[in-house]
Amino acid sequence: MTALTFEYRAMDQAGTRHRGALPALNEAEAFRKVTAMGLTPLSLRSNAGSRFRRAGGKRINARDLAHFTYQLGVLVSSRIPISEGLRRIAEQEKPSRLRDVVTDVARRIEAGEQVALALDANRESFGDVYVETVRAAEKSGNLVKALEHLSESLERGQEMSKQVRGALMYPLCVSAILGLAVVFLIGFVVPKFAAMFESRHVELPAFTKALMLLGNSMQGYWFVYLFGIAGLIFGYRQTVRTKRGRQAIDQALGRVPHLGNILRGLAIARFTRILGLSVSSGLGLIESLELAGKASGRASMQRDAEAMAAQVRRGGKLSEVLDGCKEISGFTRRMLMAGEQSAELPRMCSIISRHYERETGHLVKNIATVIEPLMIVAIAGVVLVIALAIFLPMWDMVKLVG
Predict the structure, then answer these.
(1) Is the pTM for the entire model greater than 0.70?
(2) Residue 25 sits in which domain range?
């Protein structure tokens, strides 16, 4: 077979980019040669026109990742060569980020890398929890079981997210429509009525004057309001990027009635699910606590998990450090202690996560029942204020005419 010439672009461990060319029979061999040089291949292009480009670094959709994980587990359990199976999976996918990533993983495995190392090269797409779980499971020989649990965990997490989004969609839509209606009434309707009343020399109440000034400012300085909204959005995004900002927002949302219970239940369910999955895959307790804290989705839970991991690193037991975690309920503490004492921590974590998933599911279903009365009161209050702002001067005008 005639050797081809492959042009490559690669990066070393220090982040320096390299370019060059080398002879190889195929892309897999060229990939192996570049890897043997201590470089991470970014792209390969041969004189025959075939081309390899490393997949992008964005996160894969949770639903697609769950489906891919299930297929990967089937491949491993059926003893089909993983690289060949991954190529089949990639061929079935439409052109997408997942297809590019799977192709990249297959090429790396063909080049002689282990599954975990191939996934680690695309860590930004799979996430820390996924990569570290597979790495630990591959070392302990529990890869098939870990992939099954990963797939189930991703599916359950996706289902919970759909339930929360679905429950919040109605109040968010109603709030948006109400907001637009209020802006229209204050910005266009109230100023017209106020101008008519002033032309008839009707004394306007204080809050009518206030609404008129607000409406006139919205008409004359609408760009200031737009810049203000854009500034709030930008400020929020910048705040979320900082650890302290995330903790502040997390604490504020946690104080909201009903919503705080939902967020806390979701965080405990994610924390215990990932903790059990990590421990059952072969990860140590310290690494499992850190990963579970990151996966919980709450800054306060992650902070407490990091504190617990630090105490365990100094020689403490799980049962001894749980009291320092304020976000974990008493029921969760007792169950985790029982799991540690009976050497069945993964099973206890599964019981806890399922319990809080059910409990949170009930809270999410009842969220409309809690929010609807509040929204009715809010709508009635807004309508009452605007109606009084218009009708009180109108009654005075009728008295003057009479």
Answers:
(1) no
(2) 4-53
